Each structure stands twice: as structure tokens, then as C-alpha cells.
Amino acid sequence: MSKKANEDMKNENTVQAIIIADTFGDEFIPISNNVPHALLPMINKPLIDYTLEFLSLGGIEEAFLFCCTHVDAIKHHIRKSILNNEVWTLTMKVHIIVSESCRSLGDCLRDIDAKGLLRGSFVLLEPGTISNIQLLPLIKKHNELMKVDKGTAMTVIFQEAGVNHISRCPQEELLVAINSQNRILSYKKMWKNKERKLDFPLEIFLENPCVSLMHNLKDTHIAICSPSVLPLFSDNFDFQTKDDFVRGLIMNEEILGSTVYCDILKGSRYGGAVTSWRMYQALSKELRQNWMYPIVLSRKKNKVLKNNVVVGEGTSIDDTAHLCNSVLGENTFIGKNVRIEDSFIFSNCKIEDNVIITHSVIGSNCVVKSKSKVTAGTILGSGCVIERGLFVENSLVQMEEPEDYEEADKLGNKAYRLRTDDDMDEDHSVKALVKKMSRLHIQEENYESEEGTDGFSDSDEDELSYTQSPVPDDTKLFFTEVIDSLTRGFEDNLLCDNLILEINSSRYAYNVTVKEVNFNVIKAILTLSLRQPIGPQYFSHLSRLLSYFAPILKNYIRNESAMIDCLQAIEDVATSNEELKEKWVMFVLQYFYNKDYVSEDAILDWFATIDQKTKFHKQVKPFTDWLQEAEEASSSDGGEDD
Amino acid sequence: MTFQVEFQAVVFAAGKGSRMSEITAGKPKCLLPIGSKPLVWYPLHKLQTAGFSDVILIVLENQKTEIQSALERSDLDLKIDYVAINDNEDLGTADSLRLIYDKIRSDVLVVSCDFISDVSLKGVLDKFRAHNASVASLFLHPQRSENVVVPGPKAKHKTERDLIGIDEQTNRLVFLASASDFETELSLPTNLLKKHTHVKIYSNLVDSHVYVLKNWVVKFLKEESSFMSIKGELLPHIVKKQLSKPPKQMDTKESIVNVHDSGDIFAFAKEDELNLAIRGMSAYNDHIGDLKGAYHNDSIRCYAYIAPKDTFGVRINTLPAYWSVNAKIVDVWERVTHGKELVLKSPNAVILSNQVDNRSIIWDGTKLNEKTSFKNCIVGSNTEVSSFSRIFNSVVMNNVTIKEKVAIENCIVCEGVTIEKGCQLKGCLVGSHHLIPEGSEYSSEVLTDSDRLMEF
After folding, report:
1. Is B161 on the interface with A (CB under 8 A)?
2. Which chain A residue has its CA at the smallest distance from B163's CA?
3. For the segment A259-270, what is each residue's pLDDT rounded down to a tens digit?
4. Which residue numbers delimit the Nucleotidyl transferase domain (chain B) (predicted)?
5. How far is B229 from chain A (nearest CA, A)?
């Protein structure tokens, strides 16, 4: 008898949590086609494992995992974890709730409300949350707040994070106004707001002696909820997300009679959620650097190499491969001379020789064949095959044929480029740029600092500098921008003068030097030609391209030093593309020489700076030999005249 | 050669007291009696205890002699440089400061004559020194509000509220405006919130009108002739300019000259090369959370110093403030004057009454006849109170004649008033040089010659 009563008591006080497993968005396409967000591997362990570990360490005894897609995979995974006696299974029960009709977090909570599963205050986690905080003190604090302020609905947990901190998501830039009791008075997302001024209702300042306006916070996506939260969601069908909820409550405070508080984590208390690839990268990095201690990466399964590289079990890496800031999955094969930087390679992949992968995610079971290059925020879905020598940048690639694809998007039999919505409307170039940036770009050195312009006077720099996500490298960006301009120009037959204007404006936007402009423009034109496979038609294509862009070449190669820049660009292209043979070098140099873009002296000067041992030196030598012969001939001619 | 002082103190005593005209008609605001001293004595004494030996006191032309003679009689050991300004022109604080431009050689500490507090000036001066600030300003937490019945008819006293934005981390003063400038919404520049990621906006702080100004601010003010008041125009302007970047340096020499002529604030706010070089090499930074240099590389820096919570501090610029400070001056005297002895009964007063309680203050030259009674009141100098009169909870200023059998309770009686026999006044305000006829009874009224009020 007493035992049963005891159990009831215990039930009464169990601390409960709700985990929403789906993002309901398309942030992780194409990876999310096959893998649910919860099972997204984060340093060779599914995300949900970190979340569950955090919850059990944080004091939760009963968790509801709400799934809408890939339910079987998640069920299977949880069952397997229980069989394997994962640590969290000792103190926490996990129930899986399935409802495939839900389309948002709001729907999920309405569903849970209907089921009546929760008893007291509970913890709400948005998908992909990892943290190391103790939840019980926070719940206790929340319950005490409820005693003082009957309307307390939610305590949102924020973490202190400076501007440009890597784990601050640019889409989630927040501005929160709180009073001295930590009640949220205003909650603004800075992301879509490009206004130079932010408006706050005057009364919040007059009613509270001291209001803190905080922009040094990031949302941890953890919230402590009162039981009233679920009915509030049920009553307000327009609440889709937690943000809707918080904003709605603040706006209709008098009608709904509910208030929202916040708690701010400082010091080593950490919280964050994988909401986008950018956050995925940030959290992996922080996990690797033990910011989430005691949640750390498993040292049994992973090997940590130098240059911030983590490698899963059964992966083989060739000695000549160069890796840095990357995570490699299990049973993956890395070939000779492969270069992988700032990237994530999932399990069972095969990366063949001479492949370059930077700032990209390679899904599981992919094959990247030799000499291809995957770069600038490319995401390969599971099972893709990138053919030999292919160049892929800033694309989402999936294995299956999409429903309506254009021929240009077919990269191979098992690789199709996906068009994202914002590729369509080029008008929102800023948006597109940020989307591009937000995918996978974190480089520690290159935080673009936003120049504080005078908020009280007008200046149009502000619009541009709004995109304050860390920009990788201005020059690189400039280069991609130029490539884009030229491709479009060539395809749509645009006037070269207009293209020059476009290039110049990008030049100012990215603040690159004249030298870099010359170098990158030439390099861009040559790189463009390489999209055509090297074959019999290649050279006619190249000369067509070069003659089309003649006005541009003429515009940028103006003097001696520009000629050197031009030649260096040729060198750069030739050395970074292995398949380019002597013939290519000869052809290009001959072309530039004949058209008078570069002078003989410039070529000879430049040739003298090339390292004699390199292959490239050998490739150029015949041409310079020919030049010198010709010169001797002409000078001897001159001699005869005398 | 005299060595240059670190700060020059300027006290503004040229205010007309327009917010309490009932009692300032006919008397300089700065000479209103507070306890045993005139109002202006308190800030001057504070400066003296802070170590100042010279003070520039700005007064109105027609009040100069009166103020001078009042202060010469007091026990201050300060060299006071009286600067009289024309009382016909309506000159603001910034105008006054511009007038004494020639006298300013160092950084300036500006104090208003109506500031009574126990706060040490060291706090705000140190804040100014530590950051080589452009402006530092002293704020006070509001005093606990007491319900006092102010003499005169019942009126609602509106308080003016400032909105003061202070960076939580660095104490930079980043926003300053009056709440009445906004209707329903307060708009703040996005840049400000991105630069200062945690700003606290206070709506209940009291601006003490104690400002420390860098020397260049006065030079800038000299050029910028449109500013009238320090609080209303100069400070908000400088605070705003913290967010601006200095204009790009031109290459040619000619344009540098132009920049100087144009009166651009950044031409004045130059930091010296050595300071910049030292900061460049130092690892010091005033803030964390972004990768900006110390002070965000701003050459204009405004700071706020908020006095500790339990500080006493008031500005005597309204009738309720005047009334309530007189009610408790005996209690706070020691804190406000840093331990100076309070002389309740001037030795030069003739006190024949034996019913004067120890919360009453009697000034010199006053004669209190036998069989009079005084409780919790202040009686100014050269006043005579005849027998069988009683004065409770009141302020009676100088040269007042109170005849027999007069009862005064909760009143303010201004200069030169004569109250005839048998009057009974409760909660009244008696304007200066007024004559109350025999046997009158008034309660909660303002008694004044209306034409006299018009004069001022």
C-alpha cells in the first residue's frame, strides 16, 4: 500500500520535458530527405543523444519526444539506446509521441494539450538543443515566479554571447527589453528588421524604473513552461513557433493576462540548438572545444588529430591528405592529396584522390571522384556521386532526380542540384547573399566588423553592413561575385561595359585592391572556360570567351603591373588545375601576347620569378624560349639595318 | 606663474526659480533659507570640502550685491569670483558658460546652486579621470517619496522625468532625453543597440546637474552659439555624437583649416597622440563582447555616475522639494555637511522664549520675545516675534515682523512680511513684503500682492 502511495507521490513530482524532434523547415535539405533532424550526426553521434544526455544530467525524469517524420528511424534508435543501456536510460523515461499531421511546434503543443500528459511546469526543447545546465533550479525559480505573478507563462533561457559570437545565429539576432525582475517587455528579432531605428512603447520605460535593452544574448531554445502554456497554444491557433508565442503574449498582455520571463546563462553554463548549418558548424566546434562540458565528444569512438580534425572509427586517411577544421565520419576513405577544410564528411563516404572539399557537408554514402572540387557551402545529400573533375560550389545536391529539374542542374547520374527558393528571386540579393553565408561559413580570423555609422544622420552603408554574419574572405567573395557576373553576362549576352560596372561595384562592396581586382577578373574568365571539358572543342570555346570579354580584358590590363597580375592569374589557374597541360598554357600565353594584353618584357620578368623546379616552369619554358629567339632575331635584324 | 588646477568649479546661481515663483518673487532663489544657511551655501560648502579653493559663481546682475553680502557673512573659506550676467536677457546655463569662456583654462565642474546632497564629488570626478571622459554626469536615485502637505492650495506637482540610457558594462552615458519628448513610442538607433549591447534605460533617476566637462567642450560651446542650456541641448548633442564617426581626414592642408572653421565637434574632441599611442599598445579594453578596441575607438565619451542607493540628494527647484528638505534638514545636516556642527540658535539672536524645541533653527539678529512658542520651524534673521505668538512647522524668512497672538502652522512666510495681531495662518504661503491685516484667518492659501508678483 505504502509503496504505491509512494509511487504516486513520485509521479506527482516527476520533472517532465517535451522535445520537439522536427524543425518543420527546409534548412537541412537534402540531408534531411533521408535522415531525421534528431538523428543528424554531430561528431559521429546523433543529435538526439546529446539532447537526452543533457536532459537526464539536468534532472529530467520523464521526456516526451514528439516526432512527425522518419518516426521509425527514431523509434529504432531510442529502442537501441535503451538496449545498449545508454547513460540517460538509467534516470529518465522517454516516450515517443507520433503525429504526422503536425506542421509546426504550435501544432505539436496543441496535440500534447489534447492528450493531457503533463502535470506541472515542464521544460520545452526545440529541435537539436544541447546544453549543460541544471534544469531543476530553473524550474524551481519559475515556480516561485508563478507564486508572485500568477500570469507567469514561460521562462525563456538565454545565454550571454557577444556580438559576432560564432554561436549566435544571424537569423536569430535578438533584442530583448527586460525589467529588473527579468520580465520580458519587448522581444524583437533583428534579422528581418533593417530599420535604422527601433521603436519601443514609451510606457514600458515609464512603468519600470529601469529597463535593460539587451543585444548580447542568444536563444538557447530551452524554455521552462507553466501548465498554462499548452492551453494558451490551444486558444491561439496563430501561434506556430515559440517566437510567435512570446511575441503574442507580450503584445496582448492585457488580453491574455500572461507574462514571459527570462533567465540569462553566464559563464560556463551553455545552451544552443542546431537550427541551421551555420549553427551545426558552431555547435560542433564548441562541442569539440568542450564548451558543453560535461557533455563532450566520445573519445572512445573518435580520434582527435591536429588542426582541429576529428575522425570516426574505421576511417582511413592517406598520408598525403591535408585536413583541417573538419569532422570525418566512420568508415570513410580519404584518398591521396585530398584537401578538406572546414567541412563535415559523414559516414561511409569515399573521397578519391586530389579532391578539394572546403566549407561543405558531404552526406553519408557519398562518393566524390578524383580531381573534383566541392566548395562554398555545398551540401551533398546521402548517396551522391560527384563525377570526376567536377566543380561544385554553393549548391544543394541530392542523389535522386527532383521532380522538375533543368538539364543544367544535372551534375551526374546520382547528383542533381536543387534550386532553393531564393535562387529564383535575385532581387533580394542581400537575402540571397546572407543565405549563402549562413550555410557554412565560419572562419575565425575574418569577422567583418560592422562600422558604426551615425545613427542620427543618413548614410547608405548601413544597408550593406547589415549582413553581419562573419564573411569568410572578401577577396574570395569578390571572386565568386565576378564569376557570377561573367557567367550571366556571357549567357545573356550582356554588354561588357555593364559587366565592368558590375565588377567595379563589387570591388567597392568587398573593398579589394586594384591588384586583386586584376588578378581575380582574369582568373574568373579563365576559370569560366574550364567549365567546358577539355576536349577538341575546348580551345575554340576559350577563344570565343576571351574575345567576348575583350573589352573587359582591355579595361583591366592597363599597365605593366596589371600585366604581371594577369600572368599570375594564369599561373594560379594552371597550377591549381592539374589537368591543364602545356598546350593550355601555351595557348593562353600566345593569345594574350598576340592580342597585346601582355608585353614581352612582362612575360620575361614574370617568368624569372617562377620556381624552376615546378612543372609549370617547364610548361612556360617553350613559350619564353620562342619569345627570346624571336627577340634575338629582331634585334639582329636591327643590327643589320645599322 | 600659477600652476594649472585640475578642475575649475562653476556654480550657477542665476536661476530665477520659475518653478516656485510664489516664494522666489522678491528673493534670489539661491538665498532661500534651508535650515541655518541660504541654499547656495550647500553646494559651495560641498566644493570646499571637496578641496576647491576657488569658485566661479554666476549670479544675476541685480542680485549680485545681495548674494555677495549674504555669502561674506557666512563661514565659507572660498575665494568666490562673482560673475554677474544681465538679468533682462533670458540666458541659459550654456549661455552663461559661454560668457565666462575667458576664465576657463582647465576642465570644468559645473554645479547648480540648488543641489543638496551627502554624495561625495569624488565618485563622479574619478569616473571622469579614469576614462579621460568628455563629460561625466552625476545621477541620484530618487528619494523615497513622502506625503507632505505643501503650504498653499492643493496642486498636483508634476515631476519631469528623464530617460537616461547607461551602458551596463562601461557606465557610458549613451542616451539622454526627456520623457516628454516622446508621445507613445521611444525610438532608438539600431546602431546604438548594436554597439552597446546592454543598455539600461532609467526613467526615475534624478539628474543632479553636476557635470564635469572636458576643456574642449567649453571651446566647442563657444563656437556653437545656438545652445542655450547644458542639460537641454549641449549634453544631448554630445551624447548623440558618441555614435558618430569623425569625418574622414582630408589630405590637403587647406581642408584641415576648413574643418576647424566649420565647428565640427570632432575637431575639438581630439585626443592627444600620446594617449592614443599608449592605448594602442596597451592590452586594456573597457568592454568585452565584441572585437572592438577600447572605448570603441571613440574620441567623445560620456559617462554616468550613479550615486549609491542610500545617498541623500535633492534639487531644490520646486516648492515641494523646498518644503520637504526644510522639514528634514536637521536630520540630514551632518551627512550633508560632512560633520559640520549645526548651530540651531544663533548667538546673535535674542531669545527670550523658553519654548523653542531643538528642531527649530533661529538665525542671527532675530528677537523672540517672552511667551512665544516654536516647534520645528526656521526663523530667518532680523525677524521679530512678539509675545503670545506661536510658530509650528513653518519657515519664516528674514525681516519678518510677527505681532502678538499670532498662530502660524505649516506656513512659508517670505521676506519682509508683517503679520498683525491675532492672525491665524494654516498651510499658507505668504509672499514677500505682504501685510496681513489684524485678526485675519487663512488656511491653504497663497497670500501675496498680485501686482508684486507681476513685477518679476
Report:
1. yes
2. A205
3. 899 999 888 888
4. 9-144
5. 21
Q: Looking at residue A1, what is its pLDDT?
A: 42
Domain B7-180+189-246+283-329 classified CATH 3.90.550.10?
yes
Q: What is the mean pLDDT of chain A?
A: 79
Average pLDDT, chain B: 85
Contact list, A451 vs chain B (CB under 8 Å): 245
Give the pLDDT band of residue B75 (cuts 50, 70, 90). Answer: confident
Cβ <8 Å between B190 and A196:
yes
**Inter-chain touch A452–B191, beta carbons under 8 Å:** yes
Please tell me if residue A561 touches chain B, with a CB cutoff of 8 Å.
no
One-letter identity of residue A580: L
Q: ipTM, 2 decimals?
A: 0.82
Superfamily of B343-455 according to CATH: Hexapeptide repeat proteins (2.160.10.10)
> Locate cell 539672536: which residue?
B349
Asked if B194 has any chain A CB less than 8 Å from its own CB, the reply is: yes
Best B144, B171, B190, B248 residue to mutate vs chain A (most A CBs within 10 Å): B190
For B99-146, write each residue's pLDDT tens digit. Answer: 898 899 899 999 999 899 989 899 999 999 988 899 999 999 888 766
SS3 B375: strand
For the ranges A132-141, A425-434, A507-516, the maximum mean pLDDT occurs at A132-141
**pLDDT score recorded for residue B251:** 46
- CB contact B144 to A (< 8 Å): no
Contact B197 A202 (CB under 8 A): no
Average pLDDT over residues A54-70: 88
For residue B353, give the 3-state DSSP assignment: coil
Instruction: Establish if B178 touches chain A: CB-CB under 8 angstroms.
Output: no
- The answer to whether residues A635 and A595 belong to one domain is yes
The neighbour count for residue B124, using CB atoms within 10 Å, is 25
Q: Which of A212-216, A296-300, A567-571 has the highest mean pLDDT?
A: A212-216
- Contact criterion met (CB below 8 Å) for B182 and A148: no
C-alpha cell at B391: 510658530
Spacing of C-alpha B201 from chain mean position: 23
Number of domains in chain A: 3
Mean pLDDT in residue range A369-392: 82
Question: Do A244 and A150 reside in the same domain of the chain?
Answer: yes
Provide, as residue numbers in chain A, all residues whose Cβ is less than 8 Å from the Cβ of B194: 163, 215, 450, 452
Residues in A closer than 8 angstroms to B188, CB to CB, are: 197-198, 200, 213
Contact flag B194-A193 (C-beta cutoff 8 Å): no
Is there a contact between A452 and B195 if contact means CB atoms under 8 Å apart? Answer: yes
Give yes or no: residues A105 and A220 share one domain: yes
DSSP category for residue A25:
S
Residues A274 and A143 in one domain: yes
Find all residues with CB under 8 Å of B62, minimum gap 6, and list them.
Answer: B87
DSSP state of A307: T
- Helical segments of A193-300, H only: 202-207, 229-235, 242-251, 253-256, 277-288
Measured CA to CA, the distance from residue A544 to residue A490 in angstroms comes to 10
Size of interface A-B (CB pairs under 8 A): 112
3-state helix, strand, coil in chain B (%, to 5): 30, 25, 45
Residue A619 Cα, gap to closest chain B Cα (Å): 46
pLDDT in tens, A495-512: 888 888 888 888 877 777
Numbered ranges of CATH 3.90.550.10 in chain B:
7-180+189-246+283-329
- pLDDT-derived band at B248 (thresholds 50, 70, 90) equals low
CB A578 within 8 A of CB A354: yes
Q: Is B360 helix (H, G, I), strand (E, B) or coil?
A: coil
For the residues A401-424, what does the mean pLDDT come to?
A: 67
Mean pLDDT across B57-77: 88
Interface test with B, best of A165, A204, A213 (most B CBs within 10 A): A213
